[in-house]
């Protein structure tokens, strides 16, 4: 079985019923973790979790390709809704490549302060397939800050959500909802990471920060990255 962390497939064509998309993958899950779950149902050709190519940050979704369509169908029947760590996996057929995901990630502000990720999903799910949703929380209190990201499977789905929800007044909200395409913040993340990390250095193969042989655990690095991301979008 081949395991690959690269970018998405580029070939186009009809629906491949041996290839599955898996949503709501826990942040620190690996391809090996998914193999433990999916391999008992059939021979797997490829497993790939989609990640930021610079930081290694998981986007929370990936692909599992079986050799046989029957095994893929079995995986959908048995593993859709499967509880994995703190998530429930969503397993379905992967749509043919060529469906553009550009501008599919939305940045939402002015949400009620008691909003949950399930509330966000319930609000946005009518406009398309949600690949990932995240509610940003205060780093001190752990409470929602009224800010969230929602990534759809297609840019047109995100545009539909913007058309219907931007400016909508929600119950318990102080200001109208603001929904827009998230800016390309890769450069901002890098700048904040550089400012946050007093040791300098780069990101190693296992997601740790290195400086003169010193390494910070990947969990510590991710917590710092999360705080940096919150600072970017809540100031």
Structural class: alpha+beta
What name is given to the CATH topology of the domain at 105-185?
Answer: Alpha-Beta Plaits
The name of the CATH superfamily of the domain at 105-185 reads RRM (RNA recognition motif) domain
Distance between the termini: 45 Å
Described by strand count, sense and barrel closure, the largest sheet is: 5 strands, mixed
Portion in strands: 25-35%
Radius of gyration: 19 Å
Q: Total number of β-strand segments?
A: 13
Average pLDDT figure:
76
**SSE pattern:** EEHEEHEEEEHEEHEHEEH
Instruction: Output the CATH class name of the domain at 105-185.
Output: Alpha Beta
CATH architecture annotation name of the domain at 105-185: 2-Layer Sandwich
What is the global morphology? globular
Uncertain stretches of 5 or more adjacent residues = 2-12, 184-194, 196-235
Helix coverage percent: 25-40%
The spatial strand order of the largest sheet comes to: 1-3-4-2-7
Protein name: RRM domain-containing protein
Main location: nucleus
Domain RRM: 18-96, 104-184
Organism: Dendroctonus ponderosae
Question: What can you tell me about this protein's structure?
Answer:
This protein has 235 residues and is an alpha+beta fold. Among the domains are: 75 residues, RRM (RNA recognition motif) domain (Alpha-Beta Plaits, 2-Layer Sandwich); 81 residues, RRM (RNA recognition motif) domain (Alpha-Beta Plaits). The chain is 28% helix and 27% strand. The protein contains six helices and 13 strands. It has a five-stranded mixed beta sheet, covered by helices on one side. A hairpin with a 6-residue loop joins strand 9 and strand 10. The N terminus and C terminus are likely disordered. Its main location: nucleus. It is found in: Nucleus. One of its GO terms (molecular function) is mRNA binding. One of its GO terms (biological process) is negative regulation of gene expression. This is RRM domain-containing protein.
């Amino acid at each position: 079985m081949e395991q690959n962390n690269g970018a998405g497939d580029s070939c186009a064509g009809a629906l491949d019923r041996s290839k599955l998309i898996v949503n709501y993958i826990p942040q620190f899950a690996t391809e090996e973790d998914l193999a433990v779950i999916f391999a008992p149902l059939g021979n797997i050709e490829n497993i790939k979790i989609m990640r930021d190519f610079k930081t290694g940050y998981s986007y929370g979704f990936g692909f599992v390709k079986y050799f046989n369509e029957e095994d893929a169908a079995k995986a959908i029947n048995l593993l859709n809704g499967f509880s994995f760590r703190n998530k429930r996996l969503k397993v379905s057929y992967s749509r043919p490549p060529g469906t553009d995901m550009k501008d599919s990630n939305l940045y939402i502000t002015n949400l009620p302060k008691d909003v949950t990720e399930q509330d966000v999903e319930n609000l946005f799910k009518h406009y398309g397939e949600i690949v990932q949703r995240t509610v940003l929380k205060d780093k001190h209190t752990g409470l929602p800050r009224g800010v969230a990201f929602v990534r759809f499977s297609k840019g047109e789905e995100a545009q539909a959500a913007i058309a219907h929800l931007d400016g909508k007044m929600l119950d318990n909200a102080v200001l109208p909802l603001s929904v827009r395409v998230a800016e390309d913040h890769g450069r901002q993340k890098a700048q904040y990471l550089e400012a946050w990390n007093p040791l300098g250095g780069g990101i190693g193969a296992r997601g740790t920060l290195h400086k003169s042989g010193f390494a910070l655990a990947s969990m510590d690095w991710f917590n710092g990255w999360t705080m940096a991301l919150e600072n970017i979008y809540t100031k």
